[in-house]
């Protein structure tokens, strides 16, 4: 029995889980909301931050801050060393072949926009096709639509099953002679579906098609090995993997990145500037114009070190236990429908209760101190596929507990009684 002091209950957790110790690393989990212990189930939108990350950012601003790369004074060199050490940590964490293959961005959204604008703008022409899936986040749709409007490319969208699984055979059939790029989410932020990324990438490569893999949801739950996956680009956001907001990563194979033109112009990405013309630096600097988010980078590195310290097998085991338990308990609520029944999922559950608007459910859950996400989750085309405008989404992290699932279920049952009798 592991006592869950924040939840005010004792619950038998998965054997071997050290959830109480993990929870103590996250100060916010000790809060009360509306007089109730906080039950934070909105991790898919943004995960909470451990003390290791908070203290690393505080230390940077307290003792190390200066602008990087160009200063000869001690603080500038110290900050530069911390920033580039963070890049080395990121490269090691994702098993990139070289640190220069890892570009710091503001998040997965900017990383996708960078590839769309730079590689897409240089390599796609009118009539070219790119392959997406219906389960994509808006961040992996809109940048390509902007290219569609500008260049005249065509977006081809692969379907999914009623269970929320990508129809792999149908996806492959959509690859044609004009297909120049495939981009898809590793894990769906709305359904939880974990796509067979390695298989899809191999199929695309067999046709000579590069692949952008959106890891915004998968990176928090899985150990990512970009070389094993063999993706051409991989993107993720720091704030979803227990790091700061405003920082993310674009991984790209060195030959691809090296052939891409700059995304933005400004300081630090240049080699030589004159009014007669400008030359640019190599990787990764050519994609990091201006003063970067130095604190965000060092904070992200601290988050990745923290996750390595817990161990990805322990994280996966805890989260999959929560997913199975939550699915079982929620399925027993009359009138509740779960959307996303793929056998391979990350730890989130999207659902509706017949006759009750998702926003009403979210508001009333908040009254009980329970934080979930409601709405379309930036996947409007996906919910159109199911004839919905949105759902309630409970998304889990390794610091969540079965007791918190029980609190969610009890609150939902109460809400159902209040609305439907």
What does this 3D model show about the protein?
- This protein is an alpha/beta fold and 421 residues long.
- The protein has 2 domains: 2-49 and 311-416, Aspartate Aminotransferase, domain 1, CATH 3.90.1150.10; 53-308, Aspartate Aminotransferase, domain 2 (3-Layer(aba) Sandwich).
- 39% of the residues lie in helices and 18% in strands.
- Helix 7 links the parallel strand 9 (179-185) and strand 10.
- Helix 3 (74-94) crosses helix 10 (294-310) and helix 4 (108-123) packs parallel to helix 5.
- The radius of gyration is 22 Å and the shape is globular.
- Mean pLDDT is 95; it is low at 1-11.
Number of domains: 2
Oligomer, anyone?
Answer: single chain
Helicity level, as a percent range? Answer: 25-40%
Named CATH architecture of the largest domain: 3-Layer(aba) Sandwich
Q: Helical segment tally?
A: 14
CATH-level-4 superfamily name of the largest domain = Type I PLP-dependent aspartate aminotransferase-like (Major domain)
Major beta sheet, strand line-up = 6-12-11-10-9-7-8
Shape: globular
């Amino acid at each position: 029995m592991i006592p869950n002091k924040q939840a005010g209950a004792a619950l038998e957790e998965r054997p071997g889980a050290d959830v109480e110790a993990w929870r103590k690393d996250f100060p916010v989990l000790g809060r009360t909301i509306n007089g109730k212990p906080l039950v934070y189930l909105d991790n898919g939108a943004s995960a909470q931050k451990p003390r290791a990350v908070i203290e690393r950012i505080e230390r940077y601003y307290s003792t190390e801050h200066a602008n990087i790369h160009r200063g000869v004074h001690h603080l500038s060199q110290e900050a530069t060393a911390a920033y580039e050490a963070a890049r080395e940590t990121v490269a090691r964490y994702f098993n990139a072949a070289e640190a220069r293959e890892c570009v710091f961005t503001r998040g997965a959204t900017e990383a996708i926009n960078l590839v769309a604008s730079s590689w897409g703008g240089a390599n796609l022409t009118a009539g070219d096709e790119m392959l997406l899936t219906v389960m994509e986040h808006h961040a992996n749709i809109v940048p390509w639509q902007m290219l569609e409007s500008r260049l005249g490319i065509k977006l081809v969208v692969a379907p999914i099953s009623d269970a929320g699984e990508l129809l792999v055979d149908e996806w492959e059939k959509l690859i044609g002679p004009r297909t120049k790029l495939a981009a898809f989410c590793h894990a769906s932020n709305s359904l939880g579906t974990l796509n067979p990324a390695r298989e899809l990438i191999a199929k695309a490569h067999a046709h000579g098609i590069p692949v952008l893999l959106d890891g915004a949801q998968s990176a928090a739950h899985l150990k990512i090995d970009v070389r094993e996956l063999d993706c051409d680009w991989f993107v993720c956001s720091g704030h979803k993997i227990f790091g700061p907001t405003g920082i993310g990563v674009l991984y790209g194979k060195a030959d691809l990145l090296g052939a891409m033109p700059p995304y933005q112009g400004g300081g630090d990405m240049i080699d030589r500037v004159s009014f007669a013309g400008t030359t640019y630096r190599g990787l990764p600097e050519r994609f990091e114009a201006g003063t970067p988010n130095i604190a965000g980078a060092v904070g992200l590195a601290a988050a990745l070190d923290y996750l390595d310290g817990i161990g990805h097998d322990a994280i996966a085991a805890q989260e999959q236990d929560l997913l199975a338990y939550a699915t079982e308990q929620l399925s027993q609520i009359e009138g509740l429908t779960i959307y996303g029944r793929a056998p391979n999922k990350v730890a989130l559950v999207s659902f509706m209760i017949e006759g009750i608007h998702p926003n009403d459910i979210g508001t009333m859950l908040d009254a009980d101190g329970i934080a979930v996400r409601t709405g379309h989750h930036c996947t409007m085309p996906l919910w159109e596929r199911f004839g919905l405008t949105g759902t309630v989404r409970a998304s889990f992290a390794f610091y969540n507990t079965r007791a918190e699932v029980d609190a969610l279920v009890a609150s939902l049952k109460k809400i159902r009684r209040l609305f439907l009798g």
